[in-house]
Amino acid sequence: MTKKPLRSQAWFGGSSKNAIMHRSWMKNEGIVDDSFDGRPVIGICNTWSELTPCNAHLRGLAERVKRGVLEAGGLPLEFPVMSLGESNLRPTAMLYRNLASIDVEESLRGNPIDGVVLMVGCDKTTPALVMGAASCDLPTIVLSGGPMLNGRVRGEMVGSGTAVWRYSEAVKAGQMTVQDFMDAEAGMARSAGSCMTMGTASTMASMVEALGLALPGNAALPAVDSRRAALAQLTGRRIVRMVEEDLRPSSILRPSAFHNAIRTNGAIGGSTNAVLHLIAIAGRVGVPLGLDDWDRLGRGVPTIVDLQPSGRFLMEEFCYAGGLPVVLRALAERGLLDRDALTVTGRSIWQNVRDAENFLPEVIRSFDAPLTQEGGIAVLRGNLAPDGAVLKPSAATPALMQHRGPAVVFHSIDDYKRRIMDPGLDITSDSVMVLRQCGPRGYPGMAEVGNMGLPPKLLAAGVTDMVRISDARMSGTAFGTVVLHVAPEAAVGGPLALVAEGDMIELDVAGRRLVLEVDEAELARRREAWVPAPDVSGGYVGLYRRHVLQADRGADFDFLVGCRGAEVPANSH
Ligand code: FES
Asked: How far is CA 184 from the centre of its chain?
């Protein structure tokens, strides 16, 4: 049987003028002649950046990947793509997720690459790179950078993100000094790595493991654990074999993989951001996935991982307990996992995890004694969210899951910031806080502002949670009875744009309802009077606003949905 020549040989093979050009310029890097003999060329797609602190260690980790690639007989070639640092990038990293995915897709397609290792970490870097690679469909494996070591402040274990939300509310309530708040900074970020709560980064690292795109153990090993370096090396070895096996994302990212990931998200108490990202990734490989799948598959999946923001512990403990393989095994034994789903190991997910052992049962609990009974993402519908909205029950206050109250409306994030500190603000703990113009088009980029802080006067009175509704997202590290991703968003004339001060709103999580108690005739009158904000933005933001899909469709660009393959129609010279 003759082996199909590798894609990279269309660049590096033979004696044509073009082949000589391609090889000659590469040799200025000191690459030896036999590196171009037809061995797999492995792209190491790196989101390393000093502006993305969570990924700042990925340059070093890439060297370990290269070691593995070389051991397995491949040629590793590292290249940078746009890096999205959640903590620094304004107005929000989500604005650039789709842009980074274009960078990845085009870099892969246009270069002599046979397979790729995606080096990711901070929140949006994971979906951006997976989306781009999925649209190209070359053999792909993901390596996450791993979480930071646990935060420690004054002897207390504190989780990144989660502690910031908690402390800032404590400062507003007069229960913590500003100096103490500032002193906590360094203690919350003690090592390289991503947020060590079950925020979006840890959630997405778990999602790629549950989807079968990463080696077992990818999600939980701390960034600075020596086993993370070993995992990088094994990842490098494995991608070379995947190229030989022609094992592509289109074979792995089947409906069963997404169903497994959705249930896993429920079991780990994962971030609401995963809803958007998984829908967007599924769109790239032509798998139909929508909000109703999230509700249907996640309903009744208890959260068994006791991690902040829903629970007590942090990613270090999750790792010591055995990490995600323990959760996947538990899901499978409860009949909640498709055991046959294929993974990057070339084996099924069940073969990968069937021997996983739980070493800390208080961290990864049993399904009989879960952290919360309802771990999935609740998808709400009603006249306030005809195309859906989401809520994370495990992060919400049980007493508020059924609530009716008058709306206090903030017309934009600036309006919220202007008025929230005002002691004269007409608001009580029964009020429903409504924030609009924060969706994909409105913000733009759908910022993580949906968990808007409570008014100081209510915090000081001991109120710790209120119902909040918006077309925004919320950080995976945040908590509260927060209704997010309302679709259609206010900026495109969704009903959220029509809510007036004092309107009664009913939230019924068990019934999956979100109702604005205003009759249709009055809503029609308000709709008639509604004027969209003029869109004068140019450049990338203008492109984004024109093409971004609504939250229920993953906020991808309309023209990026689908897989375009790795064929290149023409040569460069
Ligand atoms: Fe990067 Fe949280 S800010 S993972």
From this structure: 26
CA 25 to chain centre: 38
**Buried-state track 249-282, b at ≥16 Cβ within 10 A, e below 16:** beebbbebbbbbbbbbbbbbbbbbbbbbbbbbbb
End-to-end CA distance of the chain, in Å?
33
Preceding omega of 488 cis (within 30 degrees of 0)? yes
Atom of ligand 1 nearest to the CA of 194: 4
- Tell how far CA 491 is from the center of its chain: 24
* Cα three-residue angle 56-61-63, rounded to 5 degrees: 125
Residue 48 CA to residue 175 CA, distance in Å, equals 38
- How far is ligand 1, taken at its centre, from the CA of residue 66, in Å? 25
Residue-wise pLDDT tens digits, 115-164: 999 999 999 999 999 999 999 999 999 999 999 999 998 888 899 888 88
Contact residues for 504 (Cβ-Cβ < 8 A; gap 6+)? 404, 405, 406, 407, 516, 517
Alpha helices in 6-84 (DSSP H): 9-12, 17-27, 58-71
Q: Which amino acid is at 350?
A: W
At 68, list the tokens: 């593995």
Sheet with 432-435, side-by-side order of all strands: 385-391, 378-382, 513-516, 504-508, 402-410, 432-435, 468-470, 482-483
**pTM for this model (two decimals):** 0.97
* 483 sits in which H/E element: strand 482-483
Q: Where are the alpha helices (DSSP H) in 2-50?
A: 9-12, 17-27
How far, in Å, from the CA of 189 to the mean position of ligand 1? 10
Amino acid at the residue 200: T
Q: Is 250 helix (H, G, I), strand (E, B) or coil?
A: helix
Distance CA 119, CA 2 (A): 33
C-alpha span between 332 and 366 (Å, rounded): 13
Give residues (CB < 6 A) around ligand 1: 54, 86-87, 122-123, 161, 194-195, 199, 201
- The structure tokens 């929000």 sit at 92
**Per-residue pLDDT reduced to its tens digit, 264-273:** 999 999 999 9
Report which protein residue has its CA nearest ligand 1's atom 1.
Answer: 122
**380 touches 396 (CB < 8 A):** no
CA distance 352 to 72: 21
d(CA 218, ligand 1 centre) in Å: 16
Ligand 1 atom closest to 476 (CA): 2
Cα distance between residue 410 and residue 382, in whole Å: 21
The alpha carbons of the chain give a radius of gyration, in whole angstroms, of: 24
Strand 468-470, strand 482-483: pairing: parallel
Rounded Cα distance, 371 and 77, in Å: 44
Confidence tier at 294 by pLDDT (50, 70, 90):
very high
Task: Note the residue count of the chain.
Answer: 573
Distance 197 CA to ligand 1 centre (A): 10
